[in-house]
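Support request, please re-run this one:
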Amino acid sequence: MKIVVTSNGADLDAPASPVFGRCPTYVFVDTETMTFEAVENPAMNAAGGAGIQAAQFVVERGAQAVVTGNVGPNASNVFQSAGVPVHLFGGGTVRQAVEAYKAGQLPAAGGANVQAHAGMGMGQGMGMGRGMGRGMGRGMGMGMGRRAGGAFPQTPPPSPMATASPAPSREGEIVSLKDMAGTLRKQLAEVMERLDRLEKGE
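Re-run finished. Output below.
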């Protein structure tokens, strides 16, 4: 079976990375032979949408499971659509992560276990822009916990100081977030189209 482990290095003894979308390297490992391939993360320095781009990348390279420390809602949506399970690894080397996976010791993430770094409530689905910018800080940190079944550590909600924007910039932020949501919708559509083609053997 081919799995991918997020890594801070290019071999099995490198430390596993606790982040998915912006980890430096993905190590693809055959769990039966322990042969591996280390590939740089093409989305690590992306201005936005790193989680979606990275998830699409590892799915296209044939990963049948993902082992990482944390996964955000955007990447989680791609993996759920592709039927690729995500398993959470607390820390250690890539080799230890693979061994723990093979031994059935890694819990499966039921959804995102960290919130979107872009600050968007993508948990409502990529589709409608209806509530995209609504109440940016209000309950953001708690919403994702429900998707993960509350089983994993959550990022604490942003402090009121961090989310209180001056009134004049609110409209600008809404426009910016709607633009970002449109881009993410387009990227997800491309992911789904690519998956359909792959599943049909094209």
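The longest strand covers residues 2-7. The CA atoms of residues 132 and 163 lie 15 Å apart.
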